[in-house]
From TrEMBL:
One of its GO terms (molecular function) is ATP binding. GO terms for biological process: carbohydrate transport. InterPro entries: AAA+_ATPase, ABC_transporter-like_ATP-bd, ABC_transporter-like_CS, ABC_transpr_MalK-like, ABC_transpr_MalK/UgpC-like, Mo/tungstate-bd_C_term_dom, NA-bd_OB-fold, P-loop_NTPase. The keyword Transport applies. Its main location: membrane. It comes from Ciceribacter lividus. Keywords: ATP-binding, Nucleotide-binding, Transport. GO terms for cellular component: ATP-binding cassette (ABC) transporter complex, substrate-binding subunit-containing. This is Carbohydrate ABC transporter ATP-binding protein (CUT1 family).
């Protein structure tokens, strides 16, 4: 049983409130990602689940047990750290078997479990090496192996890929995902990288200033963010935000800074004259000729291509806007065009509260 539940968890360091009334339910076998900017409280929350930090208020439950006052060693969890945290004087085998030896398990059982996990992680040829003889990716696999041999109820990952280069990060990310599918152990994963969150998480918890901003599946957060903060934090390239107001007859959206009007998305009522923020993902923008009705005038600032993806950065009266496409572009800086957005893909947020206005 590895379900994790937090009920009204708070954490203060002196007069500073770091975690503020956080409640989260993580189902058994679920892969949950905690994401947020630096200082949002995600690592502190993970340490509270692990028992490495006490909570000032609230309760922590693991597998249906109230573990709020239990020490870390009593919680049946295993943690994988950003810094690997391997014992430098121990071989790979000794590092992986350390917790089992500490628990005085039979030698044959220890050997069998370590060999099985080493095979799973492709570490068989490295068992007699010291950590200093391994690459960063290999060290991280050893740290994961050390956690797996314990067969814990919950895996906790604290930004485990941040010390790896881009290629290794992608490789180890896939290995962690494959391991979760194979083991089906409840996992809580902390990262500030929204690509990791979107590609690994079954559930994502977005944190902001110690509070839960939104909880949902990756695509729910992408398609239906509850706030301007979530819309801007999830997605790469970043979402475009445009100041606008609804016309008095509620038929068009007026964008004064770009001196243009746009079609009003369907499904919104009682919006007459309301000031809004429009959120448009870069893939839902299209280029057209300058002066085309219902488009925002723009000047091409730069074109960035990764080979498979192209991002066009445009200057408009409403600020910089990004357009992304799978097609390669022959555009050059300085070209003047119009930006059209797909009305059915426009997200609308209230200017005052920055909360999304849901269509009926």
């Amino acid at each position: 049983m590895g379900a994790v539940s937090l009920h009204g968890v708070c954490k203060s360091f002196g007069a500073v409130n770091v975690i503020k009334d956080v409640s989260i339910d993580i189902a058994e076998g679920e892969f949950c990602v905690l994401i947020g900017p630096s200082g949002s409280g995600k690592s502190t929350l993970l340490r509270i689940i692990a028992g490495l930090e006490d909570c000032t208020a609230g309760e922590v439950h693991i597998g249906g047990r109230d573990v709020t006052d239990m020490q870390a060693k009593e919680r049946n969890i295993a943690m994988v750290f950003q810094s690997y945290a391997l014992y430098p004087q121990m071989t790979v085998r000794e590092n992986m078997s350390f917790s089992l030896r500490l628990a005085r398990r039979p030698k044959e059982e220890i050997r069998r479990k370590v060999d099985a996990v080493a095979q799973m992680l492709e570490l068989e040829t490295l068992l007699d090496r010291l950590p200093k003889e391994l690459s960063g990716g290999q060290r991280q696999r050893v740290a994961m192996g050390r956690a797996i041999v314990r067969n814990p109820a919950v895996f906790l990952f604290d930004e485990p890929l941040s010390n790896l280069d881009a290629k290794l990060r992608s490789q180890v990310r896939g290995e962690i995902r494959d391991l979760h599918q194979r083991l089906a152990t409840t996992s809580v994963y902390v990262t500030h990288d929204q690509v990791e969150a979107m590609t690994m998480g079954q559930k994502i918890v977005v944190l902001r200033d110690g509070r839960v901003e939104q909880v949902g599946s990756p695509l729910t957060l992408y398609d239906s963010p509850d706030s301007v903060f979530v819309a801007g934090f999830i997605g790469s390239p970043a979402i475009n935000m445009i100041k606008a107001s609804v016309s008095d007859d509620a038929r068009t959206l007026l964008v004064p800074e770009s001196q243009t009007s746009l079609a009003m998305p369907e499904g919104f009522a009682d919006m007459n004259g309301r000031k809004v923020l429009l959120g448009v993902r870069p893939e839902f923008l299209e280029l057209s000729e300058l002066g085309t009705p219902g488009t925002i005038p723009c000047v091409v600032n730069a074109v960035e291509s990764t080979g498979s993806d192209t991002t066009v950065i445009c200057d408009t009266g409403s600020g910089k806007m990004l357009l992304s496409s799978k097609q390669r572009s022959q555009l050059r800086p300085g070209e003047r065009l119009g930006l059209a957005m797909r009305p059915e893909k426009v997200l609308m947020f209230d200017t005052a509260t920055e909360r999304r206005i849901a269509a009926r």
